[in-house]
Amino acid sequence: MNTLPLTCGIGLRAPHYREVLSTRPATGWLEVHSENFFEGGQPVAMLQRLAEIYPLSLHGVGLGLGSAERPDPQHLAAWRRLVEEVRPAAVSEHLAFNHVGGRYANDLLPLPYTRHMLDLVSANVREAQDAIGRPLMLENLSSYLAFPDSEMDEATFLAELVQRTGCGLLLDVNNLYVNQQNLGTDVEAALATLPADAIGEIHLAGFTERNGLLVDTHSRPVHAPVWALYRKVLARIGPRPTLIEWDLDIPPLDTLLAEADKANRLLDEVRDHG
């Protein structure tokens, strides 16, 4: 069950571990990448200390639920241990492909949105949820190509996964905007297709332009058109727990907190006019 508060949190990365523990900044919640804590020991002890102060979200980046092969049992076992040790408020992963034949790509790769893949991914999601003993939220992907044999769009694929597996959704607004600019994704149609009640979290991040493409680098402040799209999403579905992601060129903690304050002001506006 997702018990994140209806406020904005920040993605906690290694450069800020000590500062957050020592200063306890006023942020709604924290999200960490699950795989960074699979080895246990002091990192997990730190998370347990943080869990006494903040609601925590565990965000997976390596399971590859969009792969045609089943999830790695060792990965699932490590994830379950971490969930049991930390008792997070939410758990999420990406709708992405990353492995085949025992070989792994250190990336979040797109997949063809076909009925056959829907069957395979549904089985993967059910297996993962059974393994960790709770529902997952799945995140929409930033993509730079589209498969010509896809039989549906990503939003329809995600909506079908929700129906088949009972999973939730993590709506990455930056990814929506990036795909709109790169691939011509119809954002209005996507928002109309995604089941609003299943959306339990929103991500915001910055992109970088490279050779005419927008790349989801998580290395910049949130851009103005993404803020505008976030405002539109909130007006449509209502307030949701929101996260500021920043994974490269990580700035001072105060910069992250200032971005979260912007999101909180928009969340307050929606509540005030709700």
- Average predicted confidence as pLDDT: 93
The number of helices is: 9
Beta-strand content estimate: 15-25%
Q: Catalogue the unreliable spans.
A: none
Across the major sheet, the strand order is: 1-2-3-4-7-8-9-12
**Distance between the first and last residues' Cα:** 25 Å
In this structure, how is the largest beta sheet organized? Answer: 8 strands, parallel, barrel
Question: Quick one: how many beta strands?
Answer: 12
**What's the CATH first level?**
Alpha Beta
What would you report as the Rg, rounded to the nearest angstrom?
18 Å
> Mind telling me the CATH superfamily name?
Divalent-metal-dependent TIM barrel enzymes
Content-based structural category = alpha/beta
Family: Belongs to the UPF0276 family.
Protein name: UPF0276 protein EV669_103140
Organism: Gulbenkiania mobilis
Can you describe what's shown?
It is a single chain. The protein is globular and about 50 Å long. α8 runs parallel beside α9. The chain is built from 9 helices and 12 strands. β1, α1 and β2 form a beta-alpha-beta unit. It has one domain: Divalent-metal-dependent TIM barrel enzymes (TIM Barrel, Alpha-Beta Barrel). 43% of the residues are buried. The strands form 3 sheets. The chain has an 8-stranded parallel β-barrel, surrounded by 4 helices. The mean pLDDT is 93. It has 274 residues and is of the alpha/beta class. InterPro entries: MbnB/TglH/ChrH, Xyl_isomerase-like_sf. It comes from Gulbenkiania mobilis.
